[in-house]
Write a structure and sequence with these properties.
Order of helices and strands: EHEHHEEH
Radius of gyration: 14 Å
Distance between the termini: 22 Å
């Protein structure tokens, strides 16, 4: 018997930092156990270079991923929706389970300052999704 993998949708404001980090780290940590996706409320033009660099340190290249807006369809099909910042206003109510995670802003958006955020998101994924 085969089981469909659950889709986890990570959402942040611009889909350039936290949500991209969450999706990439879930892919890295869970392999094919989940389908990871990310979106934002008001997408930026590109993934934050410091976020892409910290993920590259793990051997993954996300620099070419394009930030996109969350859609009603995304919220209807996601099994788990992870809001990477509390208080985000979504275009509709998610069908799946909703988790609200909160992480402090990095002191700066450079590689050295983003590494602790990467580690915090990794630990949260391990504790809540992979446990």
């Amino acid at each position: 018997m085969t089981h469909a993998t659950q889709t986890v949708l990570f959402i942040c404001q611009h889909n350039a930092g936290r949500s991209q980090l969450g999706a990439a780290l879930l892919e890295y940590l869970a392999g094919d156990r989940f389908t990871a996706a990310s979106a934002g409320i008001s997408p930026a033009d590109a993934v934050n270079p410091a976020v892409a660099a910290t993920v590259a340190e793990l051997g993954m290249d996300i620099a070419d991923r394009v930030p996109r807006a969350v859609t009603v369809g995304d919220l209807d099909t996601a099994d788990i929706v992870v809001l990477m910042k509390p208080g985000l206003t979504l275009p509709s109510s998610p069908r799946g389970r909703v988790m609200e995670w909160s992480f402090p802003d990095p002191a700066a958006w450079n590689v050295a300052a983003v590494r602790p955020l990467r580690e915090a998101v990794s630990e949260k994924i391990r504790a809540t999704l992979l446990n």
